[in-house]
Amino acid sequence: MKEYLNGRLKVIQGDITTLKVDAIVNAANSTLMGGGGVDGAIHREGGPSILTACKEIRNHRYRDGLPPGKAVITDAGKLPADYVIHTVGPVWGGGRQDEVKILEAAYRNTLLLAEETGINTIAFPAISTGVYGFPKELAAPIVYNVIKTHLSRKSLPRKVFLIFLSKKNMEIFEETLSVKEL
Ligand code: AR6
Hints:
The chain is of the alpha/beta class.
């Protein structure tokens, strides 16, 4: 576990569905109807109220689905967290389809929504670096810089956690940042 940005950013290993923070972030897809990976785990452990809330959002605000880079908030059902913020990262297609900008927007808009909601503590999974195939070494400094910029301007969230399911992926993140000497 490493700390950055005067302790406001913490990198940890574990399962995001077990965290007792104000909000956890879901790496969803545009349908908001669930899926595999972290999305599947959140809906499975949180129970049906999260899907009901997602259906409401689809019926009223985002009839064509949640565009990549945007974020919405729901309750967290049976999870220990209070809220789930659902965002959609880019599908990696080689880097020339605005993948970097979309990944930045997903983190930035999630942090802004958390701030507006008054959230103190938030945990992110490694958005897009699973099924969506975004290179992990490329994602690390992008994610770090978006969080750094947000925290330098805003007092909320007070604390941000980046949680990695595997130790290996956590180490890739930490080692990539240390090489960059951020
Ligand atoms: N806690 C923390 N991290 C997790 C967990 C967990 N419980 N489960 C998986 N991860 P992915 P994506 C890590 O594929 O690339 C879904 O089907 C995982 O090891 O969940 O954004 C959606 O519905 C990886 O490092 O998300 C979309 O269709 C990271 O979370 C699509 O996958 C992200 O992997 C989104 O793909």
